């Protein structure tokens, strides 16, 4: 019989040798806290537009800046090595490798930007790749760790994690505005020291629970995650959005101080803080009949009413997970349909992420306006990741994961058409929608993979699937957008190789809209296959 927040497990070979008292609640929620901070530290790849303007000042052409940005994208999404390390050794080694890569990469960027190393595209690509690959190792350790420790509730957990990953760029942007602007080189030095230090601090609670200890969350625990986890995430979204706009023309260090305090409050998730189960029911966080409801943990007046209320709410469907070998998954058409859709949808989002600064400049926007657009992209990225995680869990009996994939494909297509209209005012809405859709795709990919193929070899599967945004970034953000930008750039060699007008990116977004239409058709086919199999 387990006491609240504590479990007892048999120790010794075959469960012999007595019982050991372990803090099971602290163990799993400690791993969740580690994962959240790792995601928050590792999402700096989306803040590239904050310092891409500095690269133009170094005399680099647009296509060279895009190559550097793509190098960072490739590093952030090269998760296959991290997946292998996680599946074989657990999360700690991946965190250590990521810390070393991040520190080295940002320090190289610092040396280049301060003139201690001669400016060269290969050196900047190396520094950017290593810095973001370190964040990729953190993501590749945090996501499988949380998915394994909270397997029955992976949609809720992955949505929260990806929300923190998505808001990371906004957090970094606000810290830059508060303490460092316009000194990019000092900012790079802070990233080289501060981010790895934070990641190393998560080693204390990073762990993978034994499979037998992974139980469905109780209604109270789900309410706690929503109330504190998603609540703090929402507070971060509101705060960084308002702070960034407030600091558009001036810097206020006090706003950075408040942000750091707000981030520290995430630590409340580590403790078994009491949250009434009634809050969970009001939020629609009911459990399925297959969940083990711990009624003693829920403050309810009537146990029969609790069971009745829980089964009347939208359910999280818990089904036996298939066990497929890695090679079998690589031969399945469902995997490659999902992969191709993500190449297009995520590639479309990355194209705007990496080019929003140049797009604002092409449309004659104010020099300080790009930070606001970066924040909107990041806020949308966060909201999409979080909301799709909750919705895919709560409405799993109504809409399949493939239905959500189809939905985001159509939304991205419409948004690409809107981006082809040269309007700075419309760009505010387009950035928010694009960020939200891109963020939703980032959460849908791992939870769909877990639903289709289970937890075995999940690290390697996720690492393989993350080649999708890498390819999308290379083909669309680097090759396509740069080619179109250079085609419309004046041939008389204007200073800093700047293109002006809506034509600079309009053709790129129209082409992406057509590709997203194709992705929508593939998503519909994926939905038809998976829905038919589930009905069967």
Structure commentary:
- With 536 residues, this protein is an all-alpha fold.
- It has a single domain, classed as MFS general substrate transporter like domains (Growth Hormone, Chain: A), CATH 1.20.1250.20.
- Helices cover 71% and strands 1% of the residues.
- It contains 20 helices and 2 strands.
- It has helices spanning 24-42, 48-57, 62-77, 80-89, 91-113, 121-149, 154-180, 184-201, 219-246, 253-264, 277-282, 303-312, 326-330, 333-362, 370-394, 401-419, 424-453, 458-465, 467-488, 503-535; strands spanning 7-10, 19-22.
- It has a two-stranded antiparallel sheet.
- Helix 2 (48-57) crosses helix 14 and helix 6 runs antiparallel to helix 7.
- The longest helix has 33 residues, at 503-535.
- It is globular, with a radius of gyration of 23 Å.
- The two termini are 40 Å apart.
- Mean pLDDT is 81; it is low at 1-24 and 287-321.
């Amino acid at each position: 019989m387990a006491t609240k927040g504590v479990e007892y497990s048999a120790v010794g070979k075959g469960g012999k040798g007595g019982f050991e008292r372990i803090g099971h609640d602290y163990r799993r929620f400690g791993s969740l806290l580690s994962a959240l901070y790792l995601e928050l530290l590792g999402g700096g790849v989306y803040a590239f537009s904050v310092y891409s303007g500095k690269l133009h000042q170094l005399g680099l052409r647009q296509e060279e800046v895009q190559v550097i940005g793509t190098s960072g994208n490739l590093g952030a999404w090269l998760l296959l090595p991290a997946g292998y390390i996680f599946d074989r050794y657990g999360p700690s080694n991946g965190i250590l490798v990521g810390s070393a890569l991040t520190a080295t990469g940002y320090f190289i960027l610092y040396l280049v930007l301060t003139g201690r190393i001669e400016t060269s595209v290969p050196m900047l690509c190396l520094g950017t790749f290593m810095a973001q690959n370190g964040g990729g190792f953190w993501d590749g350790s945090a996501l499988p760790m949380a998915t394994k420790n909270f397997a029955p509730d992976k949609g809720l957990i992955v949505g929260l994690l990806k929300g923190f990953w998505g808001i990371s760029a906004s957090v970094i942007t606000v810290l830059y505005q508060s303490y460092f602007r316009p000194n990019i080189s000092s900012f790079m030095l802070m990233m080289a020291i501060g981010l790895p230090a934070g990641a190393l601090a998560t080693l204390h609670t990073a762990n993978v629970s034994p499979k037998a200890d992974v139980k469905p969350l109780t209604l109270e625990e789900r309410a706690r995650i929503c109330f504190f986890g998603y609540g703090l995430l929402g507070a971060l979204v509101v705060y960084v959005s308002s702070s960034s706009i407030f600091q558009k023309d001036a810097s206020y260090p006090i706003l950075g101080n408040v942000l750091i305090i707000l981030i520290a409050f995430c630590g409340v998730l580590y403790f078994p803080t009491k949250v009434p189960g009634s809050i969970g029911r009001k939020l629609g966080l009911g459990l399925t009949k297959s969940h083990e409801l711990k009624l003693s943990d829920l403050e309810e007046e009537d146990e029969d009413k609790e069971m009745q209320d829980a089964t009347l709410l939208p359910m999280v469907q818990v089904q036996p997970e298939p066990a497929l070998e890695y090679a079998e998954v690589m031969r399945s058409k469902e995997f490659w349909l999902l992969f191709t859709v993500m190449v297009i949808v995520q590639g479309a989002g990355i194209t705007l992420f990496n080019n929003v600064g140049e797009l604002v400049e092409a449309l004659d926007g104010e020099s300080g306006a790009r930070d606001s657009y970066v924040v909107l992209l990041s806020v949308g990225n966060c909201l999409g990741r979080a909301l799709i995680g909750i919705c895919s869990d709560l409405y799993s009996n109504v809409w399949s994961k493939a239905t959500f994939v189809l939905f985001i494909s159509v939304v991205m297509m419409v948004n690409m058409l809107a981006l082809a209209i040269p309007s700075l005012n419309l760009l505010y809405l387009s950035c928010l929608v694009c960020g939200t859709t891109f963020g939703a795709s980032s959460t849908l990919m791992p939870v769909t993979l877990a639903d289709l193929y289970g937890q075995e070899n999940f690290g390697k599967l996720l690492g393989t699937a993350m080649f999708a945004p890498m390819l999308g970034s290379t083909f669309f953000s680097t090759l396509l957008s740069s080619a179109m930008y250079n085609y419309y750039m004046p041939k008389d060699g204007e200073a800093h190789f700047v293109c002006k007008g809506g034509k600079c990116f309009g053709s790129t977004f129209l082409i992406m809209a057509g590709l997203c239409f194709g992705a929508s058709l593939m998503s519909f086919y994926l939905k038809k296959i998976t829905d038919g199999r589930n009905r069967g």
